[in-house]
TrEMBL record:
Keywords in alphabetical order: Oxidoreductase
Pfam families in UniProt: adh_short_C2
Keyword Cell cycle set for record: no
Molecular function (Gene Ontology), one example: oxidoreductase activity
Annotated family: Belongs to the short-chain dehydrogenases/reductases (SDR) family.
SUPFAM superfamilies: NAD(P)-binding Rossmann-fold domains (SSF51735)
Name of protein: SDR family oxidoreductase
Highest taxon of source: Bacteria
Amino acid sequence: MELGLRDRICVVTGASKGIGLEVSRRLVGEGARVLMVARTQDALAAAAEEVGAEWLAADVTDPDCDERIIATCAEQMGGIDVLVNNAGTSRVTALEDLTDDDWRDQLELNVMASMRLMRAAAPRMAERGWGRIVNVASSSGKRPSNTNGAYSVAKAAQLSLSRVFADAYAPLGVLVNAVTPGPVATPLWTAPGGMGEQTAALQGVTLQEALDGVGAGVPIKRLGEPGEIADVIVFLCSERSSYVTGAAWSADGGRVAIFI
């Protein structure tokens, strides 16, 4: 299927690994020009070379980051057509252990950083009469997780933020949607010190047993793969999603048992 992404200029945050890396790979494969953004320069540069994309090392929680990213697109690539807000992280933390800083950090990363990038990119897309924005939220934004309340609340706010921008920009040709993955076999879960090991430590089991247990709680009975989520995101970035806006697409293996 031709997705109509050839020569489109795309920005993907959190792009050095996991879902962001797979989104970048697929966009390049569709002929798009991609600017990959992440904090860790060495890992990002290696990932971009592998994929065949441009890269910019930046922390999206920096209030000046949005203008830097958009300026790079405008000056070096000629504009911006697609924005994928994928940067995010979480830790297994009980509600009573969450600090004020934990709450602020999650809101800054998932809401404020996404908002600033959309605020900078959407008007430019509107000037061109075409644009796609996809915010990578979480199933926890629909059904809060008891392992990190701050993350869940921030992801719910990100979904609301997506709808606000979707309503404002749909008449101008800019379509804004969200994707809500469930647990996915990315470094967030599988890497040393990640959520898998944190869960294993709490339960007194091995990493593999912990990951198997998380997967068993999903109706499909396994963790998602990064590429499976990326496929949904890239569709929403494409010309083929021309009548979709303001939606929160579940890509969670059926984990959230509601139609929304």
